[in-house]
Amino acid sequence: MDEQHLDGNGIAGLLGEIAAAEMTTVLRTCQSCGNRRAIGEHRAYHSAGVVLRCPACDDVALVIGVQEQQLVVAWYGTYEIGR
Hints:
about 80 residues, five-stranded antiparallel sheet, globular, three-stranded antiparallel sheet, mainly beta
């Protein structure tokens, strides 16, 4: 990690609010490189919103923004809860 990003565990509370579940252990398969990792291993970048990126290829996994006082969420790739 560096000053620009946290791992996905750093936004666990926000993800829990959106999905009403523990999301850091959810597995995600990247739509670009096929890498399969837990959300907690992804990189979270903060600015006007949050962008979660694949730890292998840096492709966008999740975008969370605020629009007119509501959260706007875009999920990319395949997510798998449980094994």
